[in-house]
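re: ur question from earlier - yeah i can do the single chain one, its not a big deal. heres the input i used so u can compare w yours
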Amino acid sequence: MVGTVATCRRVIALTGPLLPLVSFLARLPVAMTQFGSVLLVAETSGSLATAGVVGGALSAGQVVCGPLLGRLADRHGQRPVVLAAAAVNAVATAALVAGALGGLATAPLAVIGAVTGASVPLVGPLARTRSVALAHRSGAGEGVLGAVHSVEGTLDEVSFVLGPALVGLAALAAHPALALGLAAALVAVFGTAFALHPTATATPGATAAAAASPATTRPGGRARHPGVVYAVRGTLLLQGAMFGACQAGIAALTARLGVPGQAGTVYAAMGVFSAAVGLALGALPARFGLRLRWRAATGAALLLSVPLLFTHTLAPLYAVVIVLGAAYAPHLITAFALTERAVEPARLAEATAYAASALVAGQALALAVSGRLAEAYGPAGAFAVAVGAAAGALLLALATRVPAARAHGAGRAYVPAQQTAAPQTAAPQTAAPQTPAP
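and the output i got, formated as tokens:
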């Protein structure tokens, strides 16, 4: 508990108390819109197939355009990009509500859904990028950077638990349209507030800084990412697949048990426990380096997911899923920390956007596949997808070389971990105080 409080204090000392709150409220619409769009279209059209098409178009828009928005933020700064995206997203979300309530056909609804997904302001990845920039600008060390990743990962987890819960409550109390209307308002108000927050000056756009060193630049001028960046995206794709498969399996099992309303509660319980573990990760000693954390998290995900295959009643389902959540946040936090360590600072927003898109893509693909398997083979069919994805993530983590030092921005060369006996060391500036003033 003491370590968790210290983690929060480190980050608040860096960003100020308002930024985490604003960024959290600006993230909620992402989780609300995905789930809410499916509920809304299913309610208004009476067709789950139509709802699935619209929800899939929304996910596809986010996966395809998310990295583009990240690249624009790297080049031109976060403020103009988030302001424009938040405005478009709020209008598109409101248009989706109006179209669904007005009985619009499937094709135009899917187009509006795709625009809604394409204009998601990426507050989660950009907030992480901004906090990292503040840490580097203040000369903070690896301890503060670890705290930043823990807090940002926890905010992501909580938003993805609370968002669907708010949608479910709105649907029960009134109509899914209420939830999407709230999402449009949140992104308009708090997305704009995030863009205008004074800390946006930490990420003004770094076209000049994007020039890479000759040793790592292609003839075209863009620096190569180390292989670990692509491997991390692969494990995030597989973790997204675990999310989607668990959602399908939990829904199938609770429906079989005659308590379909418990599905959201089970998934929320997993998310809450995962978030708590993720926040506590910031207090982990530095000797537990990123390579060890990555392999431990993916190994734990495989080990803790296997009992899902043998779970047939509600109480064991709660127990197994909650414990499995302990592996999720540590992997997410470590994956984004590895990305931040390995890529150039001038390309961090784009890199984190790719990572977030990989997670969304994995979840969407696994939901489609595991839903069919659950229908054919029962809940175990969906849960088998989760176990297979966990195994793939562990193999990637074991097979990938991990940088033992920062590849960019700290005056240190990229060194594969296998070529040095030293632990994961900090950059030279880490001799600065660990809790700098904002």
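The chain has a mean pLDDT of 83. not sure if urs matches, ping me
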